[in-house]
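Following the same procedure, backbone shapes were mapped to integers, as reproduced here:
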Amino acid sequence: MSEHTRVVVCVVLLAVLGAVASVGTVGASTASADQPVFLSHTDDDAERNGVDRHLSSGDLYWQGQTLWFEDPHNEIDAEGLLLREYDTETEEVGPLVREITFEDNETTLETTDLEGTYVLVLGNSRGTTVDINDGAVAGTTSVENAAPFEVLEQTLAVEWEGGASSTSQSDREIELQSNRVRYNVNVSSPTLSYTELEGVFMSDRMLRDHNRPFADRTPFGERRRMYDTHADADVIVLRGFNDGSLETDFSTIETFPDAITVEVTDTGRTETVALPSESPEGGPFRISSLDISERVEPGESVTITATVTNEWPTTERGDVVFELGEESRASVGTRLDSGAETTVSTTLQAPTDPGEAAYAVTTDGDSVEGTITVEGTESESETGDGEETTESGGIVDTLIGLLYPQALIGLVMTALSVGTFVVWRRR
């Protein structure tokens, strides 16, 4: 084989080896990129493809999380550890909770039944605790210097947003309240498909910005397939946070679902909230009774009392509007929990003219109308006759008052004249 031929063969071989290496690298990169991150809480360990957190001494964890740690450098030279309670006030190790066994120098710690403060100790010494940093055993320390980790139960309350009663149902939000600040939730509904859930919670950019899961709160999604992952199970992954809400747009679906289920991805804490699918669109409030006088005097202050009930399955607030006649009107605000009842009243002035006066009491969802009688003390004709009689009597009295002294003087003078005449004649 000539020198030129050998050079060509070497070049070809190098090119083939380079291509093979390149294909292997691309394949490894693709496999890594497609490797899923644990998404949904499950009690079946066999189905898990990851853990929730790496255990570290001194950190806070949530009941239901799966914690992982290892001893890669044989720092403790033991096949297992003991999980014990720890009293932070007395700095003393408490009762034994369970034994932790290593397998290939690693293990997982389930926290479903844990709530409190704990340390890991060596099996042959209650005075020596194990220090763990980001899932790796870093060494041992004395009980007095121990950094216990804490496990808390996550609270979760899911409610249909209570707001102004004029707010349309399609604009309502789902409120989440928890003692935990940052976490992700699996959201589902027995009557909604994945596509419908995506429309309700992620149909526009504003919804996506508000509801998309926390990227640093594993488990949160599958690389390059954030939401397709749960399409078969009709579950969508969203974010949850303390005293926050899931923004929604239910106008993207034809009918409201019967319920929405919210499950925390890593703790499994689950709550279901029923949506007001049967609530009347007109409003939540119903006026169950009304108290108002049937007959009143002109200009009299009239008290109107209404009993109002909230028939929606959510806390609502709105105004109760009272009207009497054409000019008297008042509005009273109220806030009612679902199914609650309250009495609302106000005082209005009756019209000054006698006759029938209309009234109305209106809420967001109901109204009651009617009339009351405004009655005077006498009719107009009687009042006129009385005025004429009074006027006539007043003139006579005035004339008598003016003429009576002169008449009396005239009578006296006449009597004196008659007396004088009689005496004179007798003489």
Remarks:
- The longest helix spans residues 380-426.
- The chain has four domains: 45-152, 157-274, 285-374, 381-413.
- Residues 157-274 form one domain.
